[in-house]
Amino acid sequence: MIDMAQRVYLDHSATTPVARPVLDAMLPYFDVRFGNASSLHEFGREARRAVDRSRESIAGALGSRPEEIVFTSGATEADNLAILGAASARGRGGHLITSRVEHDAVLQAAEWLGANGVEITRLDVDAQGRVDPQAIFDAVRGDTFLVSIMAGNNEIGTVEPIADIGQGCRERGIPFHTDAVQALGKLELSMDGVDMLSASAHKLGGPKGVGFLYVRRGMRLAPLVHGGGHERGLRSGTENVAGIIGLAAAMELALAERAEVTARMWRLRERLIADVLRIPATRLNGHRTESLPHIANFSFAGIEGESLVMKLDEVGIAASTGSACSSPNLEPSHVLVAIGVPLSMAHGSLRISMGRDTSDSDIDRLLSALPRAVAELRAMSPFKVGE
Amino acid sequence: MYTERVVEHFRAPHNMGKMKDPSAVGRVGNILCGDVMWFYIRVAPDLQGHEVITDVSWETFGCTAAIATSSMMSDLAKGKTLDEAISISNRDVADKLGGLPSAKMHCSALAADALNEAIHDYLTKTGRDIPPALAARHEHIQRDMASLEERYKVFLERDAGNAPTGEAPTCS
User: Fold this and answer.
1) Domain A4-16+258-380 has CATH 3.90.1150.10
2) Do B31 and A343 touch (CB under 8 A)?
3) Which of A37, A38, A106, A333 would bridge with A322, disulfide CB 3.0–4.6 Å?
4) What ipTM, to 2 d.p.?
């Protein structure tokens, strides 16, 4: 067994470790300051003050107002609230525009609406995964109630032109939602044309189980969770006080160190790409530069991604695959299919995602193990590369 | 997710690789679905005159479970008479591995199919009668593969250079 401390974690798009200062900020709110933020007494008031401070901090970082931040259980709930909530506020029918490369939280929410009387347009993307803003505007109809396009792709890292999309949607009076789970803390996000934005704490050094939906004032949205009227009635349920504090602390930390961390990520990503592409019959999925700095996705001809992840795990390197071999339908990743990766290569994908602590030595470890892992699996495969 | 036996076979697979001059070959699966297995067998009569699989090897493109089931199936088939080998089920392979996640049971079915096809190939090549159950299964396997290719036709054409549109069909 390889000691955990010896392992290299390159799966930060799945989740990140809680950063030490974030954990320290959270801990008192589990036992000493445990109050319910809705309680009248000092225990409650103390919790309320902490939630308010967190909300103000997050709003400040986004350049928005505190009351525009709705805390949720995470980004899946935030995406569902944005999409189902907008549809529900509108009433029956209507039209939603999204893309083929969205996260499942968006695609499956849209799928559900599609089965319940809403018309869905799922736009194609180019070979790097980018949506054409003009294609969105061309698809807009009189009954279009929402456009939902992610800020940066979780599988391949491609960055979408959300500033252009937001501006065009604003001109046309169509609300625009963006899932910014992977982009937040990594990119300078333009909020100008954004009416709703989903985020999650655990992708940026915060805890699991908490996130938020930014909801621009005036946006018509109906709640999914009914109850005590928390979060301005948009999300009932006792506030996850420690989680909310962790979310705000993680965002503060991510923004404070963003310049330094993302500069390192860019440099490591470029090294990684240059070296991995020396392995024969290998491709980079996504965009070399119009990308999130922490994600690089590759396909290796002749092998299957899950077994490659397993091979790397044997030598203490944690990465992931975009291919969904564990799903009952065995379909390859919808993102890789959408960008036109040949299906023969779409099953052989490997996603490397870096975090704030990822170093040159982590990338060295990967680069020394990867060619061998690929070669071993290719030796087992009936598809001989280069023969 | 995987049992220790699965991981052991994945790490150090048995009988892996292409066979020189095999008696027969079984090829199953579809790269578009992420699983392809080729099974090679060498068949020779034993002292009693029964035909025995004296050697098995395989080449597999697939996940951890696909590689582990290939390895286990090759162990189970080696040294068996053809009749015995035909009766090895996918359940036998999965059980010997200490179980497989339900989403991965198709991998063990693929290994059983690959062996079936190799034995079918052997009996065909040597001009022998094919037992009805083996023949029926062969028909079924070939029909499944043909229908998959049909379903994936647009994607094969796309990969050959035509424009990509739409969603990929499912393999199940």
Assistant:
1) yes
2) yes
3) A333
4) 0.89
